[in-house]
Design goal:
The chain is mainly alpha-helical and about 280 residues long. The chain is built from 11 helices and 2 strands.
Length: about 280
């Protein structure tokens, strides 16, 4: 395979990863890492380094559109980034002492979790009565635009959401993904935020989370420019397109496709990790 062919394939795969990652709020790293390790036998740590660059691109591409539309809760995202950044640094440091086959198995398990979360029925109930004094003090309650005007919502259980964000950051640094699954789970089910706000705020956060751990991977030489560049370009293009689609509607068939792809990749990652092939 020539370098040009390899680059074009990586570009196409990264584009799809960015598109699906943007639509679901889970980040494109969930597809990039299996694509590189299983499809092209790239060393897992270099795949993680490229994935972190891709996650930053996904967040940058999608978050700009979401912020412009007024859907993202910026104040909440910046508050929760304190937890995710701290966890990401710890996860990146832990990755240096964790065997790659163990990381592959953990990655596969997180993929299965993400597959289930992407297919579950979304929570459409909107909290309008705040029971969180901390949310009021931090001014985390907000609103988002809809066809019928602005929709107000309240944030609940701030400490519980903050603790889950630490875990999400830890997994981000260890596995090289945005951990959007846990972020969306925390904001949807713990903090009771509307699904569009949780998805867009997750996209806003994952770039900062990934950047914190990417610095450590870069210092250790695990970010290869020749590999990271086509991944970045492809993911960024996919994220920009996905952000436009999400603003208009939520496509159920895309979530089904995403779930099927994640499940297949999860089984492959767990099998190869358990067999010591990664």
């Amino acid at each position: 395979m020539t370098v040009l062919t390899f680059t074009l394939i990586i570009l196409a795969g990264s584009f799809m990863a960015g598109l699906l990652g943007s639509l679901t709020g889970l980040g494109g790293g969930f597809i990039i890492i299996p694509l590189l390790t299983l499809g092209f036998h790239v060393d897992l740590r270099y795949a993680i380094g490229a994935s972190l660059v891709a996650v930053i691109a996904t967040s940058s591409g999608a978050a700009a559109a979401y912020v412009r539309e007024g859907i993202t809760n910026i104040r909440l995202g910046m508050f929760l980034e304190i937890a995710t950044t701290a966890g990401a640094v710890g996860g990146a440091l832990l990755a240096a002492y964790t065997p790659t086959h163990v990381i592959a198995v953990i990655f596969g398990i997180i993929l299965l979790l993400s597959a289930g979360l992407s297919l579950r029925k979304r929570q459409f109930h909107i909290e309008r009565t705040s029971k969180s004094r901390l949310a009021e003090q931090l001014r985390l309650n907000s609103s988002y635009p809809s066809r019928n005007g602005a929709v107000d919502y309240k944030v609940r259980h701030v400490p519980g959401g903050f603790l889950m964000m630490i875990l999400a950051g830890l997994l981000s640094g260890l596995l090289g993904v945005g951990s959007g699954a846990l972020k969306v789970l925390a904001m949807d089910n713990v903090m009771r935020i509307p699904f569009k706000v949780s998805t867009t705020t997750s996209n806003f956060m994952i770039g900062v989370t990934a950047a914190a751990s990417a610095v450590i991977y870069f210092q250790r030489g695990y970010v290869d420019p020749g590999l990271a560049m086509p991944v970045l370009v492809g993911v960024l293009a996919g994220a920009l397109l996905g952000s436009r689609w999400l603003i208009q509607s939520e496509s159920a068939w895309i979530r089904v496709l995403f779930t099927v792809v994640l499940t297949i990749l999860a089984v492959e990652m767990i099998y190869n990790g358990w067999a010591g092939k990664i």
